[in-house]
Specification:
Blueprint (H helix, E strand, L loop, with lengths): L1 H11 L6 H13 L1 H24 L1 H5 L2 H24 L13 H16 L2 H49 L4 H28 L1
Length: 201
């Protein structure tokens, strides 16, 4: 029961639209499922670390405004840089037009990891989830609950990569250019929102 409830929670997080969603979609649209999946792995690994840190007492760190400010500003700068890159220098090549190397997959993994990890509000979400899991189920069953939640998130991210892989087959470079401008604009918007949140935190 604990695992199932956690899994449903993870699936429900698909409704959250954030910078990691656009990072994953951009990767899958450009190079296909494997690139999007690399981003998904980066996201889930960072989530696992967030869960571990939350259980160890990340709430204490988040009470330190200097810590939140530095990590938040780092996240805003990262998102702004990525957004400007997609707006000003989009790579419109598709997988069958350019050879993708292992280092490219590693790069997308790192992108997924950093975009998720440098957002202090991701920690706030996981602190809330961990608190609920441990108070309702205890340590052992709580860990099962959290495992289900993580698996649910990874499942939805995998489905997003599959969807983008299907979509890219019918997209032209002109379509990709338009989508990349939207992605770049959204990432910059999220950077601004993050900056405002950090300012008022």
């Amino acid at each position: 029961m604990a695992f199932l409830e956690g899994f449903v929670l993870g699936l429900s997080m698909i409704i959250f639209i954030g910078p990691v969603l656009f990072t994953l979609l951009q990767a899958a649209l450009q190079f296909g499922f494997k690139s999007g999946w690399a981003v998904a792995w980066g996201i889930i690994i960072s989530d696992i670390i967030c869960v571990i840190l939350s259980k160890m007492g990340a709430a204490v760190l988040l009470q330190n405004k200097s810590y939140v400010w530095y990590i938040g500003i780092s996240g805003a700068v990262l998102l702004t840089g990525m957004g400007l890159n997609y707006l000003l220098n989009p790579n419109l090549s598709k997988k069958n037009e350019v050879e993708i190397k292992r280092s490219d997959y590693i790069g997308y993994f790192i992108k997924g990891f950093l975009v998720n990890f440098v957002n202090p509000f991701v920690f706030l979400v996981w602190i809330g989830v961990c608190t609920r899991a441990l108070t309702q189920y205890g340590n052992y069953q709580g860990n099962i609950y959290l495992s289900g939640a993580l698996l649910g998130i990874f499942a939805t991210d995998t489905l997003k990569a599959v969807f983008a892989e299907k979509l890219r087959k019918v997209l032209t470079p002109a379509h990709l250019s338009y989508i990349y401008k939207i992605v770049g604009g959204m990432l910059i918007l999220f950077a601004v929102i993050l900056g405002i949140r950090i300012y008022w935190y």
